[in-house]
Write a structure and sequence with these properties.
Number of strands: 5
Distance between the termini: 67 Å
Structural class: alpha/beta
Strand order of the largest sheet: 2-1-3-4-5
Order of helices and strands: HHHEHEHHEHEHEHHHH
Helix content: 40-55%
Shape: globular
Length: 273
């Protein structure tokens, strides 16, 4: 089995003796390498985005499966899709080993259960219309390995985001993404560079897919949910910019029709009341 680069010894020694300024400077130096690692994986990310877009464009759903930090990052990305892009809450779903309790507290041993992810996906009604992305810094997490193998056996398309080369999870996946971030500042603490890389990649995947699904107009979130005053204000100002309306007029139209997109559609149809 290839060496896990994410587990290699840190390039820095005696961290407990470092002044605060040196700790922060060295962490920052390591963090600067992450976007370059993501850049090298762009061709793989492109293939993953196009595959996910095809599934969602045909009515399928996207699932993220992972444990620990990786699982939590999948949940964060999934939870932000409905308010940002106006999609249903079941279009993108994050599943973490150990269930919702693991979001706040580590569930010891949950990630070692090979059959648990498939059970969790089954409870969500997974089908061949859907797409599953496995998240694992190491590329060897049993929870993710088992879930992706079961998907393969059941004709479900898969991808992954891992941070070691030539991992088992990448070998299983139809559309692997390998963002090789190297040893961590604190040896083995993959919530650092590896977690940052996975977060950046998830941002790319979900945002690009939603753009391709038509959930963005120009560069604006026209389908965002108007769930607080900040977002209502943002939507109002979008309409002011588009049509030269006064704030009150734009605000009233937005609140009446419920989304920036609905206002735009009505305006283009000549409906003004």
């Amino acid at each position: 089995m290839p060496e896990k680069i994410t587990e290699k010894d840190s390039a820095y020694r005696h961290l407990e003796l470092m002044p605060t300024a040196d700790i922060l400077s060295n962490i920052n130096k390591e963090d600067k390498t992450v976007p370059l690692a993501v850049e090298k994986a762009l061709p793989q990310i492109e293939k993953l985005v196009d595959a996910v877009h095809e599934k969602l464009g045909n009515g399928g759903r996207l699932f993220y499966i992972g444990s620990g930090t990786s699982g939590r990052l999948g949940i964060v990305d999934a939870s932000e899709c409905p308010p940002t892009f106006g999609v249903g809450f079941d279009v993108v779903t994050g599943i973490i080993a150990g269930g919702d309790a693991a979001i706040r507290r580590a569930q010891e041993g949950a990630e070692d259960n090979l059959g648990a992810a498939w059970k969790d996906l089954g409870q969500a009604g997974i089908s061949a219309k859907d797409f599953v992305i496995g998240l694992s810094a190491s590329g060897t997490t049993p929870y993710v390995v088992g879930g992706l193998y079961s998907c393969k056996e059941n004709g479900i398309a898969t991808g992954c985001i891992v941070c070691n080369p030539e991992s088992e999870i990448a070998a299983i996946s139809d559309y692997p993404v390998e963002v090789v971030t190297g040893p961590e500042f604190v040896t083995g603490s993959t919530r650092m560079k590896a977690g940052t890389a996975q977060k950046m990649t998830l941002n790319m995947v979900s945002t690009a897919v939603m753009i391709k699904l038509g959930r963005i107009k120009d560069n604006k979130m026209v389908d965002m949910q108007l769930t607080n005053n900040k977002l209502i204000d943002r939507g109002t100002k979008m309409l002011m910019h588009l049509y030269g309306w006064e704030y009150g007029q734009a605000h009233d139209r937005l609140m009446k029709l419920g989304s920036v997109r609905n206002v735009i559609i009505n305006y283009e149809l000549g409906i003004t009341n």
